């Protein structure tokens, strides 16, 4: 069984492990852009906004606007601190930031682990304390490390897989007990004892 305490941990700045870009002289994470609704047509691409509902998806659209950008397989972080994983191609709105790993492709398990750690680091994000695309690269998250001192992505992924399997097995056992109880009640009700 994978245990969090069995690993060494160290802090990493977002810029150390996620893709960044330079805007003028400032380092920032990629971000979306404001596009007026008149420039968005109904389409198949999810539009990620700062909402905390529906995995951040506000609508499905397409656009030929110059500022319309899409990203695939990323973690979105809004200026208010909402965080979601998007394995699909999506367009992001202004004040929604895109986190893509530099050296590894994200997957559902790895993103769950990373999202938990990012949430722990930005717990104070709010309308009065907004996350900017230039502040985000400098935020530190604490991650388990491998023997070289690099983020141990394999451990993170396996840890989440193991926890999900444990929960799945607990649910299956619970469901079996409930089905047995229902079957017993039905037999007793029908006089079958």
What report would you give on this structure?
With 193 residues, the chain is α+β, with helices and mostly antiparallel strands. The longest helix is centred in the last third of the chain and has 37 residues, at 153-189. It has a five-stranded mixed β-sheet with strand order 5-4-7-6-8. The chain has one domain (4-189): DNA methylase specificity domains (Adenine-n6-DNA-methyltransferase TaqI, Chain A, domain 2, Alpha-Beta Complex), CATH 3.90.220.20. A hairpin with a 4-residue loop joins strand 6 (70-78) and strand 7 (83-92). It has helices at residues 14-17, 108-121, 153-189; strands spanning 8-13, 21-23, 26-28, 41-48, 57-62, 70-78, 83-92, 96-99, 140-145. It is built from three helices and nine strands.
